[in-house]
């Protein structure tokens, strides 16, 4: 048996997120949706985030635009705006720990993730930075990601998996993945492996070396 925490990035998407919620609800599973701020500014996106929240999922911050990794932003105020504007859009749906996930530019855990301004903003705002330890690249391999994910979750005792509720066709295979993971011995949980949380409630509790530009 092994532990598996599910997370979904880059939504909400009206053509995909409802299907994801249906799949999770049917199995009594709870996840975290790391949302894009600009998508919450659209009524349909805001409604989906609220639905997810009301069904017991956690709502996290995944920057406003998801355009450039924060570590590559040099203009003063840009990184803090990406974080704080999205948090304002999340509003009352926010988790008490103010969950934030940086944009890894394809799942990379490197100096692209953050810059000094972003770290200051997260610390001052009492945010919790949530990373990951498995990315099956479902957006690039919408047909074959399930097998990749199953291999990844078998490699460690506790996996924090990143999936994407995006209109790529990948989430058409979510039911198959969830059932296969359960059959393989996955114990689904909603919290995060400690080594994937370098900042918790504004306090640095893990190693940020190699993840901050400048």
TrEMBL record:
| Functional summary from the UniProt entry | Is involved in generating a small heat-stable compound (Nod), an acylated oligomer of N-acetylglucosamine, that stimulates mitosis in various plant protoplasts.
Q: Which GO terms describe its molecular function?
A: hydrolase activity, acting on carbon-nitrogen (but not peptide) bonds; metal ion binding
Q: Name the chain's protein.
A: Chitooligosaccharide deacetylase
Q: Where is the NodB homology domain?
A: 2-189
Say which species the protein is native to.
Answer: Roseomonas acroporae
Alphabetical UniProt keywords: Hydrolase, Metal-binding
Domain of life of the source: Bacteria
Gene3D superfamilies, sorted: Glycoside hydrolase/deacetylase
